[in-house]
Amino acid sequence: MKLDILAFAAHPDDIELACSGTLIKHAKLGKKTGIVDLTQGELGTRGSAELRAIEAKKSAEIMGLEYRENLHLGDGYFEINETTLNKIIVEIRKTQPQIVLANAPSDRHPDHGRASELVKRACFLSGLPKVQTTYNGVNQSAHRPKNVYFYIQDHHIHPDFVIDITDEFEVKMETVKAFSSQFYDPNSKEPETPISTKNFFDFLDARFREFGRIAGVTYAEGFICERAPAVSTLYDLK
Ligand SMILES: [Zn+2]
């Protein structure tokens, strides 16, 4: 399964909240897109791991993903070590993406920062032939993605670039709502969380409008990168 863009997330629903519009847009352009969720989000206050797996599948169909995998690392407790790095490397080598998307280096949920560092390191190590991994008993070849971009999720971070998702915003919100156990549901008897209030949808609308304003469009998603994004001429910048 070769992919063009592979997005990693600490929890199922991180991508939906932060950058599903970007994945929808590139899938529409014919790019092969995929997601690897590191954990099942099993410590989430609402819902359950089983429910979130069903919701993730529904969202994957809406996004037009070619691939969605869950590594079953421990929600809240996964660490950056040889075992977890190698699990990520196996996924990178299996799907050979040019572009990897990862959580922001620092965010409200501490798992996001660790996932960010874990994926960044794995992308580098994946390019070293002496780092050996196997998949289905077969040795994998080294593969380093060309670029890693970090999606902005909860905490405000000034973006290095934004992607116009005006045409994709409505479908993006459908991917968020696919996780109905996590977000606003007037009939839910589960405890309220910072993301389950009606207000949270207003926040999302405002967040993507704010990033859109930078590009002179209605809605956009924000990203940061380690090195300055390069373009050929000044006119390639919007
Ligand atoms: Zn998360």
Question: Please, could you describe this protein's structure?
Answer:
- This protein is of the alpha/beta class and 238 residues long.
- It has one domain: 3-Layer(aba) Sandwich (Rossmann fold).
- It is 36% helix and 18% strand.
- It contains seven helices and nine strands.
- It has a seven-stranded mixed beta sheet, sandwiched between helices.
- The chain is globular and about 50 Å long.
- The model has no long low-confidence stretch (mean pLDDT 96).
- The structure holds zinc ion.
- The site of zinc ion has 5 residues, from loops.
Concise summary:
This protein has 238 residues and is an alpha/beta fold.
Count of separate structural domains: 1
Report the sheet with the most strands, covering strand number, pairing sense and barrel closure.
Answer: 7 strands, mixed
Strand order of the largest sheet: 3-2-1-4-7-9-8
Number of strands: 9
List the ions, cofactors and other small molecules found in this model. zinc ion
- Gyration radius from CA atoms, angstroms: 17 Å
**Mean pLDDT over the full residue set:** 96
The CATH homologous superfamily name equals LmbE-like
Shape: globular
